[in-house]
Amino acid sequence: MRAMTMPGTSDRFTSDGTDRDAVTRAVEEAMDDDLDLPELTTLVRSLPAGWVVEVLDRLSSKRRAVLYRLLGKDQALEVFEMLDPTLQGDLVGALQDDDVAALFADLDPDDRVELLDELPAKVARRLLQGLPPQERDLTAGILGYPQRSIGRRMSPEYVAVRPEMTSAEALRRVSAHLDDAETVYTMPVVDDQRVLVGIVSLRDLMRAPVGTPVGEVMQRPDEVRATDDAEEAARRCADLKLLALPVVDNEHRLVGILTVDDALAILESADSEDQARIGGAEPLRRPYLAAPVSTLVRSRVVWLLVLAVGATLTVQVLEVFEATLEQVVTLALFVPLLIGTGGNTGNQAATTVTRALALGDVVPRDLGKVLFREFRVGLSLGVLLGVLAFAVTGLIYGRDIGLVIGLTFVSLCAMAATVGGVMPLLARVVRADPAVFSNPFISTFVDAAGLLIYFGIAKAVLGI
Q1: Model pTM greater than 0.85?
Q2: Dihedral of CA 172/175/180/182: which sign?
């Protein structure tokens, strides 16, 4: 076993990523070389929790469990809370029951629910039964909300104050809950029936004179319903730039809060999911290097099969126009160029509209506006490309072929942009994921429809 070298101690690490990468490589090499545990323990316990997470993300399940057991108790909990829920589930399966029970009990209720969703039902029930009654009730309350609702991701651990309290009383209440509240920087204000009536910041409480009632310094609250979609609620929290967003039930009673860090985590997960599906794959829900090859295969094979079946439309169109291609072989040279341009145009429009949907810039009722707007954009792009194609192709292959290619560009771009812009909105109308209706299906549809347009124009212009 060779001695391990590392670039300085933790208090000398810089924030530019250089030393962090060096330490990550050093730990990986230590695991590869079977470094003695005392030396490796000293190394990992000197690292910030975020750096340990980066190392764990790159290790196999077995090595991840070994390295995790070397962490100190407080460091282990902090690291565990920062891991993706899928990796948390992997660790639960590798750790001893006593270790798992202690970790599970120390998690916040909303984090527990995320972990439970990744575990087998039998393991989840056993962990729930091992919780103290109060923590079990808090966790069960969150589990009662629908999947993908914000109630499933909110925290029930908050500090609520009353409007008749003085600022001094409210501050004493905050001090009493510093260790068990999710956040104390923004506090909901509720009445005797727990109905939300306002929101007050810690800054305003500290600034107010001692005897000032909370009701005089509180602000009008923004809120979401517990049954609202988690991504929409998180987007609202981010758009309003709130540190915490109150969550209420149908009777307007406070049931929890959504903190900004949880909102950003939800948006990051949703963005990763959209990007994966736009590219024709299922989201991994774990770091790339931590995903087994079988998981990578499963995430891609279904979409490849679907797209392969869809691509048979293109083959059938080519078969229908086989005689046309035999008469003018030159037309075959432009097939890849045209279907590629059509697919790219449609994908650009779909990606733009999907993003606008996510940001709330457009809604399904804007379908007519989007259709007309994307048609104009596609037509403008088609004219620009068509004029260029006519000039270049006409010089090389003759005016007639140049005219066919130019007109096809105009028609194809207008059609592809219109279809690409409308598809995500139609997906939202039928309550499907807009990303699923975007690039993969649009490319397949535009390929087939584009060839029909191409050969239709060719037969009309060339008289074949």
Answers
A1: no
A2: positive
Dihedrals φ, ψ of 179, to 5°?
-85, -20
d(C-alpha 141, C-alpha 390), whole Å:
66
Q: From residue 265, how far is each of 102, 240, 294, 459 by CA, in Å?
A: 24, 16, 26, 54
354 - beta bridge partners?
Answer: none
Residue 151 CB neighbour total at 10 angstroms: 26
CA distance 357 to 431: 13
Instruction: Give the span between the Cα atoms of 141 and 226, in whole angstroms.
Output: 11
Query: 292-462 — its CATH code?
Result: 1.10.357.20
Tracing tokens 């008469």 back to the chain, one arrives at: 327
User: Which structure tokens are listed for 202?
Assistant: 């810690």
CB 200 within 8 A of CB 217: yes
Q: Which tokens in the block code for residue 239?
A: 């758009």
Could you tell me the two tokens for 79? 């690291």
Whether 54 contacts 77, CB under 8 Å: no
d(CA 304, CA 424): 20
What's the pLDDT band for 4 if we cut at 50, 70, 90? very low
Residues 186 and 195: beta-carbon distance below 8 Å: no
Question: What mean pLDDT comes out for the span 294-305?
Answer: 73
Q: Which two tokens stand for residue 65?
A: 């469990």
Nearest in space to 59 (alpha carbons), one of 90, 14, 13: 90
**Contact residues for 372 (Cβ-Cβ < 8 A; gap 6+):** none
**For 228-286, what is each residue's pLDDT tens digit?**
999 899 999 988 999 999 999 999 999 999 999 999 989 888 888 777 776 667 777 77
- State the span(s) of the chain assigned CATH 1.25.60.10: 10-147
CB 36 within 8 A of CB 66: no
DSSP H helices in 243-366: 260-278, 293-320, 322-327, 330-333, 335-359
CATH superfamily, domain 10-147, is MgtE N-terminal domain-like (1.25.60.10)
Q: At what angle do helices 85-94 and 109-116 cross, to 10 degrees?
A: 70
| Domain at 167-278: CATH architecture | Roll (3.10)
Pairing of strands 224-225, 244-248: parallel
> Rounded to whole angstroms, how far apart are CA atoms 78 and 72?
10
If you average pLDDT over every residue of the chain, what do you get?
A: 82
CATH 3.10.580.10 range(s) for the chain read 167-278
Q: What is the pLDDT at residue 280?
A: 66
Percent of the chain with pLDDT over 70: 86
Residues of the chain with CATH 1.10.357.20: 292-462
**Does position 77 have pLDDT exceeding 80, yes or no?**
yes
- Tokens describing residue 431: 């309550």
